[in-house]
Amino acid sequence: QSSMVATAALLFNAARAGIRSCNLRSYSMMAQYPPVPLFYNDLYEVPLPPGHRFPMAKYRLVRLGLQRELEPSNLATFLPSPLAAVSDLTTCHDATYVERYVTGTFTPQENRRVGFPWSIESVKRSLSSTGGTVAATHAVCNRTPGAPRFAGHLAGGTHHAFADRGEGFCVFNDIAVAACVALRDYKESVQRVLIVDLDVHQGNGCAAIFADNPNVFTFSMHCAGNYFSKKQNSDIDVEVQPGATDAEYLEILHSHLGNLFEQVRPQLTFFQAGVDPHEADAFGKLKISSAGLKRRNRLVCVRQRRAIASELHFLVCGSLADAQRRWRSLVCALATSLTLAKLSHTSPGLPIFSVPSLKVQLSA
């Protein structure tokens, strides 16, 4: 039950920024639709050595904020993220790699590359983090009457995991796994998948995994030179110069989005809405404001809607690595989900959106 409640995390500090900007008519219209399914699991928060830089408490803190805001409105229902099945993981990951991680036979060097010490708890965390994205994908791809147009997942967005190795706090690539599962399980309705990755770092794992897959198109817009490992080749890579502010960033994005959706004509879209381009992020090297990120997220949604009347869509909310004591940054990022939920509920032609992955550090 606590894990069902836990999903509230991502989408509901969004409500702080989103609901306040909704007029009463829009809010009442949203209330007429079924609640959005949101996936989360308390397994995401695992013990780490003292002084470890990864902010595990972010999941719980975000969950509490979302739960406080979303549950009373009945806009969302919170569901537990299941553990990913091995048969799903191996749709894009090497079977030996999966087995070695699950059984604890990684080398010390591999554990250092991932960034987490191995433990049973970390295995459960990685499996549930991937399983939540897969579950959200099933939720939006399910063609039964009443299937949601929007689903969310608090964790995930682990786009630095490759088929046979992990790095950058990413063990399994949940976006890649979920995309492959959709192509496997929904062949009649999903043949073209688009990944729109706006994290400040390139989605190198997704780029490598889908390099030779014509059914998945990868678009990554990231900070130039901000790579912590070897750059891969996405189908489209757009580099933004360090120090870019809202106007420059949004102009670059706007120039690519229209043609992108027309070119790919996706039936399922993953949007990695990373918040580490935010000016408060110590490692992002960009200067995007909270308002700029919110405009970015809405731009993706609106441009997609104008370009093609897709029936399936899925949103991934990405990472803000260093935002301690900066709630406005978090609220801005989370507002993505509510903005898209509002648009999907009040605009009949709008595709399905979901929200996996948010990496935000907060103070207690």
UniProtKB/TrEMBL annotation:
Residues 57-305 form the Histone deacetylase domain. InterPro entries: HDAC_classIV, HDACs, His_deacetylse_dom, His_deacetylse_dom_sf, Ureohydrolase_dom_sf. The keyword Nuclease does not apply. Keywords: Hydrolase. GO terms for molecular function: histone deacetylase activity; hydrolase activity. The keyword Hydrolase applies. GO terms for biological process: epigenetic regulation of gene expression. CDD domains: HDAC_classIV (cd09993). PANTHER family: HISTONE DEACETYLASE 12, HISTONE DEACETYLASE HDAC1-RELATED. This is Histone deacetylase domain-containing protein.
